[in-house]
Task: structure prediction
Amino acid sequence: MTTGWKATLPPTRAWKAEHGTSPAREQDAAAGGHERRVIELRDGRTALASISLRVYKKSRRIRAYLRWSDRGRTRETYLGEVDGKKREENLRSAWRLAHGQGLTAEKHVSHKQARGRPRATSVDVRASMQGNRGRDTRPELALRSQLHALGLRYRISARPVPDVRRTADVVFTRARVAVFVDGCYWHGCPDHHRPARQNSEFWTAKIEGNRRRDAAVSQMLTQAGWQVVRVWEHEDSAEAAQRIEALVNSRVARGRLVPEDI
Result:
């Protein structure tokens, strides 16, 4: 932890990225691996975090923040001060603070397991991790486009049951249909999920936890009178949209439903 800068501001190289630097590679290297940047959000969602370094003129110190995106909004939390002479040193120090404070998924992994672990070795797994977002993923956008083309109107990233903190990707309020677009890696697709080879015990437990949470959410919504539709990211968006359209129209035609009707 820094004891403060004396008469001058810290050098630019201690906090500012050099021109042409790849932000993703820089953050991966400082964190100790791509998957060590994963943080857990509410409702079982995850996000990829980064470190932001800022200099405050009054204190002449560098402060580190952990930043991530949650449903399109940038969130951050203060980690502490760092005082390395180079940016890479300060990024590494900041990630150690994040891991030590239990802010990342690494809180479930022992230090021995986490130390020196490389990035995900599977190209498919790495691509799934990089593509993970809270909302507006490519599969979601493709499905919503197809639904809109069919003349359907809907809400996005909404809670089917307002008092329950469970968010569906697409919600048809009148028909009480809740659609979830599930990523093949994070939700354990039986056809395309490939377990990570690095730290497989942790990631297997993580995916199984997501599966159990998905099942619990589906059961809760069904009991509340909703029809749950889960669409895998690998599915054809046009076919999925047609399936959803038929279900929505059928339920609207039947009028107000009760759980026993589902």
User: Anything to note?
Assistant: DSSP finds seven helices and nine strands in the chain. Strands lie at 38-40, 46-48, 50-56, 61-70, 73-82, 155-158, 168-172, 177-182, 227-232. Residues 127-261 form a domain with the Endonuclease; Chain A fold (CATH 3.40.960.10). The two ends are 58 Å apart (CA to CA).
